[in-house]
């Protein structure tokens, strides 16, 4: 009987010891998990998440470039619809050739827009609080100046496309009212003379590089003597 009591006491003590050991192990294993979660909440990667204001700013930058591209594409579609209203097949063919040249310049506009959007994205990522390194004051001013020049070129391009579509629509209205084939060819030739509507991308980039090129001593001397 005494041996049974002894075994019972030993079993109870062993069970209590095992329970305490298990609780201690569970507590020690959960502490690193909580520490990792705390570090994740305060990690630089979490702090580098752009705020809603920064995301809205990037969205506005994308919209301003796409807005100019959409105006150019709408101008081309409007010119296509106007040319298709001409009843004379030779005149309509000539107008479609003009519209085709207009449409052929859209890739230049798209390239300009993509360049501007990528430039704005790179500038936004370099801003403090956006996960990048704060740029030097000179680099930041150069980015703003270049972005402004590119967007000004995009605005000029959309204005040129819109103006050309307006003029083509006016010519179509006059041709439909007159019905003179010889006069129609003269009007179509006048439209062709307005091409190219846009400079090439190489010319745009060359002009940008020329503006960024530092002035030499000779340039400074010529400027002073004027």
From TrEMBL:
Superkingdom of this protein's organism: Bacteria
Biased composition (Low complexity): 122-137
UniProt biased composition (Basic and acidic residues): 215-226
Residue ranges of the region described as Disordered: 28-60, 122-151, 205-226
Descriptive protein name: Uncharacterized protein
Organism: Actinopolyspora saharensis
């Amino acid at each position: 009987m005494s041996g049974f009591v002894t075994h019972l006491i030993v079993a109870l003590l062993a069970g209590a010891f095992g329970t305490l050991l298990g609780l201690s192990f569970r507590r020690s294993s959960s502490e690193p998990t909580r520490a990792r979660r705390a570090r994740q909440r305060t990690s630089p990667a979490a702090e580098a998440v752009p705020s809603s204001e920064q995301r809205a700013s990037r969205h506005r930058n994308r919209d301003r470039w796409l807005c100019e591209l959409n105006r150019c594409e709408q101008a081309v579609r409007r010119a296509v619809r106007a040319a298709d209203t001409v009843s004379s097949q030779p005149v309509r063919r000539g107008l479609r050739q003009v519209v085709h040249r207009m449409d052929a310049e859209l890739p230049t506009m798209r390239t300009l827009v993509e360049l501007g959007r990528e430039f704005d994205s790179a500038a936004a990522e370099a801003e403090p609080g956006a996960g990048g390194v704060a740029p030097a004051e000179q680099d930041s001013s150069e980015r703003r100046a270049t972005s402004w020049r590119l967007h000004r070129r995009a605005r000029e391009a959309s204005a040129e496309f819109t103006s050309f579509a307006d003029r083509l629509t006016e010519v179509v209205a006059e041709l439909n009212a007159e019905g003179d084939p010889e006069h129609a060819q003269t009007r179509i030739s006048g439209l062709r003379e307005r091409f190219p509507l846009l400079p090439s991308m190489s010319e745009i980039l060359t002009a940008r590089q020329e503006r960024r090129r530092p002035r030499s001593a000779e340039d400074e001397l010529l400027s002073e003597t004027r």
